[in-house]
Amino acid sequence: MSKLILSDMPVGDIKSGDQAVLTEHGWAINSPDKDDVQLTHEYNSAGGFVDWIVAQTGYEKVGNKITGPGFPQGGIDIMELGHGNIPPQSLPTMSDYDSIVFIGASIIKGAFGTNNAPSTEATTLLNVSGVTVYGNGHSGYTIDSIIPKAAESVAAFPSRTLFVVHAGGNNLSGAGDAGAGTKGNWDLITTTQRQKAIDDYTSLKAVFAGREDDVIFCPLTQRDYNRAGYALGTDFDSNKFSSEVISPHYTPRFQNSNGFPMLDLYGMLINHEWYLSEDGIHMSISGTPKFRENIISTLRSLLVDEAVPTPYAHNIPYASAPVPKAVSIGFHYNVNSNIISSGDFTGTPITLVTDDRTTEVSVTPTSTGTISGRGDGYLYGDRPFDWTLDSDPTFYGVAWGGAGEEMHLAFTGLQANTTYSVELQAYREANEARYTELVDQGDTNNVSVVNSSDLPPKASATIQVTTNGLGELSVTIRAQSGSAYCYASAMRLVPV
After folding, report:
1. Which of 146, 218, 401, 479 has the fewest CB within 10 Å, making it most exposed?
2. Could you tell me which CATH number the domain at 94-303 has?
3. What is the per-residue pLDDT across 302-344, written as a single tens digit (0 to 9) for each?
4. Looking at the whole model, is its pTM more than 0.70?
5. Percent of the chain scored above 90 by pLDDT?
6. DSSP 112-147
7. Rounded to the nearest 5 degrees, what angle is found at the Cα of 317, between the Cα atoms of 315 and 322?
8. CATH code of the region 327-495
9. Domain-wise residue ranges, the chain
């Protein structure tokens, strides 16, 4: 009779609803044609156990069932085998380590440093006596270049060390064409590049031979190379890359219930896209410390609190625009593509797109005096991008001018003979009240004011302006009389 066994003790006939049992020796199952054979393949929450049975014992995977000798008619549900109340592999605790070493390219360098040097910020955040965090990140390095650096770390830290590896982003960056808007498109990678990435990652893992249980191989961070944002609702190519190149090497005891590592940098960025800088790849000035803090907090939960973190959701939401034909603009920075930088006030038209990405609009920025700007300036809280002026992009950057220095914006290509609600938000680091005016150039009495201080949320400056038959309207941004500066962080033009 077919049985699941724990060591040598039968625990009952296999029947629908049973769960596989994980022993200190691995998975154990006894079948009529495999008498008392004990399977020793370690459980893999991404499906390794299921694949092992199918490949090694001749059982068949039919849909979401496994059928075979000794199994009930219709088979056993894979989820029943692969999940449920199955004891996880034992996780390490902080007492097992004296060092945590982060290895990778520029993203690791930015957050944790380079050349196996101590990371003061991360060690302070970890706040565990006797444990130091180190960084070994190197800008521009592909997987093959990271291999010798990883070997240096392994040699420098011969014992009691947890290694965290994030590698492959620069391999992905070699795919596609930035000019064509396809940079980082893993589907466009050459066969040679694809195989090299796969082979190199296998070689990278081999550097840790004998110490694999103390390595977290992280999926690539979510990256939005072409600044498409969530509006397209598509899976980001970094996840495609990780699924093919990295996931076969995930350390089983560090895998979460969704199959991703417990330190899931992809899921982290999906849920905190505002960490990203303007290039859609690296962390911003404000995002870097939050990124580092989130990573260390996850490791503390895992190793100090001994609590498995809740898996991140990986579904990419389709962020439909509340008013599809609205135009959203960020000054000096915008996660959602439409940007007017301080250097754009030259009289050269800039092409914008509507929030639903279907229609192009043009704006010609000019100025009276010199307009300055700063990216990644004032940031207010961990607010998700939600297609409003109070979203995170508002706080990333600002264009500004002194008293008498004005920003002029002439729009064309909007809907003809249509009234638009023109909204302006303005934030900066100074906390005293400074007032910025938004003025209709066609009627200077049509004006609204926003208090451009560091105290959001607050009402935006809002005026209603009607386009002419060519879909044109023009506005001015200027300091209110008595205020020393004017500011612009974000603007929306919404047809009403």
Report:
1. 479
2. 3.40.50.1110
3. 999 988 888 887 766 545 556 778 888 888 766 556 889 889 9
4. no
5. 47
6. H-STTEE-HHHHHHH--TT-EEEEEE-TT--HHHHH
7. 170
8. 2.60.120.260
9. 3-82, 94-303, 327-495
